[in-house]
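Sync notes, pocket subgroup
Present: LS, DG
LS reminded everyone that the earlier model was apo-only. Rerun requested with flavin-adenine dinucleotide included. Inputs:
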Amino acid sequence: MYDVIFAGGGLASCLTAYRLRQQQPGLRLLVVEGAASLGGNHTWSFFPTDLSPAQLDWIDPLILHRWQSYEVRFPALSRRLGTGYRSTNSEFFHMFMMGALGDCVRLDAPIEEVDVTSVGLRGGETLHGRCIIDGRGPMPSRHLMLGFQKFTGQVLQLETEHGLEGPIIMDATVPQNGDYRFLYTLPVGPRELLVEDTRYSNTPDLDFEADFTAIADYVVKQGWSVAAAIKEEQGALPITLGGDIDAFFSDANGIPRIGLRAALFHATTGYSFAEAVRTADFLAESELGNTADVFQLLSDRAKRHWSRQAYWRLLNRMLFIAAVPDQRWFVMQRFYGLHQSLIERFYAGQSTLSDKLRILTGKPPVAVLRALRCLPQSSAAAHTIEVAN
Ligand SMILES: Cc1cc2nc3c(=O)[nH]c(=O)nc-3n(C[C@H](O)[C@H](O)[C@H](O)COP(=O)(O)OP(=O)(O)OC[C@H]3O[C@@H](n4cnc5c(N)ncnc54)[C@H](O)[C@@H]3O)c2cc1C
């Protein structure tokens, strides 16, 4: 009998288990992961300005790369921002978490079903817990209307040093091909780059061959010569346009969810690292009762997060519905011309009222009438039906 069983050993489950172990060491924890390692196959990045100093402190041992600044490039704007950037990856995450939590991790244990007191494994074994938390990653739901930030990435070993000072978070000087498209480059070693071909798109599907060719073309244009491709990753992160959060949680059948499964991500970027850190702190500071108590705690929290993200969902509707796809880059170029601290607050999910007005005022980046039609959430539903057709 465990106090808490985490179904799925990904980012949100492991960060929470790690933090609980630090803050409530008496708890009997179990993390159940279906794969042979924790954390999947990702490179996770975030801005240090997304987190509090105390959070940066406890997360620091997990960080592999730290940069002092980053760049963005658009057709009419190139800018270096003095905001830091941090990254880590799944291999390091797995090693770190196995060191910290190894005695309470079950790997290669695919879960068949989860209920309020137990987790049933595919092999027939049943594990019992006072509190079960479902962190098995994103799950399609008819209650969320989504766009996608999708990408294919490669870690490349170069013949010579690339000379980059920091990441290029968005290089949108590339052909847009009917989406908002940009290249994302992280200098993960003096001769190593992670390069991702990224799109904001209405659909989650990826064309790997086309993306690898596009990465190869981009790398040549930057004057870099590739010695070897070391590894690949891909993803389609959810971008929320609208939805019914109460209905979304009523589908959870009383099982508390965390991470992407609880819609705990930034509505405009699909990024969840910072929110996973905050959720880990929140649970580690709470008194954890049984599954029903924690369901209440976590669904209330996720619903508050959802309400706070209303403005970003509106922006998404403007980006996905009002903006002509090939001209979505113009919205982002305009945004990146704004004050650095406003951009930091945007990514941290802490935009003030004046930030929100500032982002929307000035020369409208999308046709006004089309933009006005996007204000109600029902426009997202209509859009979803249009895309499905
Ligand atoms: C390639 C990629 C890159 C990303 N980069 C960033 C980034 O830079 N910054 C950022 O903030 N966000 C990023 N994200 C988005 C988000 O942070 C990640 O998807 C994050 O891993 C989500 O965390 P999670 O805990 O919700 O789910 P996951 O980390 O996906 O964890 C779910 C876990 O549950 C396991 N599981 C699922 N089903 C079962 C089952 N039946 N039985 C047992 N185990 C099961 C999975 O194997 C997995 O380990 C990225 C996503 C992807 C896909």
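DG: The chain has three domains: 2-67+87-142+244-308, 145-240, 311-388.
LS: The chain is about 35% helix and 30% strand.
Action: DG to write up.
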